[in-house]
Amino acid sequence: MDGYSGAYIMFVLIESVACASGAVIIAEKKGYKGAALAGWCFVGLLFNLLGILIVLIVPTKAEGYIQQGKMKVCPFCKEAVLVDAILCKHCGSKLDATEAK
Description:
The chain has a two-stranded antiparallel sheet with strand order 1-2. Helices cover 53% and strands 6% of the residues. Helix 1 packs antiparallel against helix 2 (35-47), helix 1 (6-29) packs parallel to helix 3 (49-57) and helix 2 (35-47) crosses helix 3. It is mainly α. The chain is rod-shaped.
């Protein structure tokens, strides 16, 4: 066989699948779902270890919403809640409607 051996090709395929799986697992833990997970799977397959580093660097979905002003952090449990929330869905604490951080 000219060029690459079968063992090398198999190694690259296994590495790509492992990196895609790792990227999906990390993205899922960061709050991404559905089509976004398929996108992260593609990033893992295409960029291998670099794809995993990209997923680690990208902010969580909640952090993105906080930066956009769609969510705020509960001052009691430190979980993300909607800006308009008057009760925290995580700890049940009453939230001040004026504090949008």
